[in-house]
# Entry
Amino acid sequence: MADKRKVGLLGGGQLGRMLIEAANRLNIQVNVLDVEGAPAKQVSSHDGHIAGSFKDAAAVKRLAQASDVVTVEIEHVDTHMLENVSGEVTVEPSWRTLRIIKDKFAQKQHLKSHGVAVAESVDLEGKGMEGLKEVGTEFGYPYMLKSKTEAYDGRGNFVVRSAGQVEAAYKALGDRPLYAERWADFRMELAVMVVKTKDGVLTFPTVETVHEDSICKLTYAPPRHVKKETAKRAQELARKAIGAFEGKGVFGVEMFLLKDGSLLVNEIAPRPHNSGHYTIEACPISQYEAHLRAILDLPLPEAGLRLREPAIMLNILGGNTPDSHIKVANKALEFPNASTHLYGKGEARPGRKMGHITVTAPTLAAAEKEIQPLIDLVDDMKG
Ligand code: ATP
Ligand code: MG
Ligand code: MG
# Structure
């Protein structure tokens, strides 16, 4: 057994499931707090799991009592509950970090105060529809309207393209705590997984992410047509951004590469991240294993975070029929360099993340060639 300490996990979705796949190899027990049969629980058999909601204070307390280190697979948690148990159990990353990051506006302010470049943003809470109009005058159109909290996969964002759209934007998001961001006219999006350990801040390679309808679709490692110097700068920016937060574990840093070559941080996730799935096959140590090693103070040599071979990750989303994701996964099984992951999530709503495929190859061009038919299939089955 690599470690006798037990990890408590808030949330048992696909990120938790892949975390447990890594933990299983090291004989590390992960106690999951989520509903019975959640994706993470399906791959983990022991009596330490807790059935319930990670939003229930009593359940969080029970998880803390059964675990040595508590961590999260989602940032939309009640950080006051975590603060309450932090006297009796180690919480990684720190509840303070989770509290800042779960509010995207507070997160931006925090990064800005630490000298990390982010898109210019304006608080709109309590300013009503008038506030949205004023931002339009100040930033021009389009601008991005965002919910500060409970946002993921673009659910919480609205691109305000003209003054005529302000009303529709307010109708869509007006009941949520809002802020606005200046439009980032980016050349592409980059991401870096960062690991914060007791000794310092380490980085995985820079990848390119492609979003469709605000949901991550593809990840390219390394990024296409990006200079080594730029990829290095992205790693440095990611390292600096995560250096501004307390606590241990992996963090996903999403960035915009602007047309003038400069970089802005888009947002941070205080946990394993979709843009780091490729690390399972492409790096000696995956983001999931790195997270476990970091929160348990186990050895973590930075050379283990290197890219062994170029890789492309394709998300399998719920599509135009209830079983379209199964068809994509089955097709992928015919490809010799494709590793297929299904998350055991049950019903497939259009756009729901049901699984992913990672193709690795000696060159990125070879990986692109191999994965293209699968991208075409995913496009055909789009819901
Ligand atoms: P996630 O699922 O990654 O948590 P999210 O719902 O929190 O996503 P964001 O990361 O804020 O959403 O935005 C989703 C996508 O929208 C970005 O990846 C990018 O493509 C686009 N986007 C976000 N902010 C801006 C901006 N200021 N200017 C231009 N495009 C933007
Ligand atoms: Mg987000
Ligand atoms: Mg995002």
Notes: The radius of gyration is 20 Å. Residues 220 and 312 are 5 Å apart (CA to CA). Residues 254, 266-267 surround magnesium ion (ligand 3) (CB under 6 Å). The chain has a mean pLDDT of 97.
